[in-house]
Specification:
The chain has 2 domains: about 1-150, Luciferase-like domain (TIM Barrel); about 155-290, Alpha-Beta Barrel (TIM Barrel). The chain contains 10 helices and 10 strands. The protein has helices at about 10-20, 45-50, 70-85, 100-105, 115-130, 160-170, 180-195, 215-230, 250-260, 275-290, and strands at about 25-30, 60-65, 90-95, 135, 140, 155, 170-175, 205-210, 245, 265-270. α6 (about 160-170) links the parallel β6 (about 155) and β7 (about 170-175). About 45% of the residues are buried.
Length: about 290
Amino acid sequence: MADLAPKGFPGIAAGARHVEQAGLDSVSVSDFIMGNGAPALEATVALSAAAAVTTRVDLRFSLLVLPLRNIAWTAAQIGTLQHLSGNRVILGVGSGGAPGTPFWQAVGAAAEGRNTRLVRSLELLPGLLAGEETTLPDGTALTLAPAVPVPPVLVGGNSDNAIRRAARHADGWLPSVVSPATVARGVAKLREAAEEAGRPAPSTTVWLHAGLGDEESVRSARAAFEKSLVDMYGLSPEEAPLVPIGGSPKEAAERFAAYAEAGADHLDLLVDGGDWERQVELIAEARALL
């Protein structure tokens, strides 16, 4: 959530209830605390607030930056949320989150070696959550209780290395701000890597921006986002307009279908522009057309 007070956003609790009442599948929170004054909420606490007022929707980390965190403490937090929510956690993880920013420095997390730490955390986390005695890198033997079902784990990132990590260590791949064509290429690589690892092909969830309708705030947010895709992500001016979801619910449904045809199993949408509650309703209308 780039802005803690987007137009019409009623807060975490009321927003989560609205998503559930609209018939959508999940609420999600990103783990991007910069420490430079930019607004951000700690993801586990935010999802706990959502869990307390909902009964059905999944509680999705999109994504949790594991190399920033102590794995024992993280396992305790995730296990607690899984236990209290009735096993509704979807755990997206990654190694990004702006390493080198003041928050990383303040918690003593080095940017170097973060992918290695991510893989090690992925290896340790299932046993910790399942209540198994687990030996940590420093030699400590740790058993957490109560044991909980290990939530589905999705590895974020668009690179070939991220795809290989998802294929070897996770239940899903979580690319972000990519076109259907890029998803199709990534899914092919994912299936090949999973076959080489002797594992089932992971699912694919695509994280995208969405702003439906034609009001000025939606148009301006879309234009700014498309520019950032070219300037920051290196997309071509031709490909950038193919990434954000917009238009009418019918047009958005067609975009949803294009991602599904490319191999996406789920879409994780960040509302960008317009009235937040109305955007949720429009997204639900689009989904109902599939």
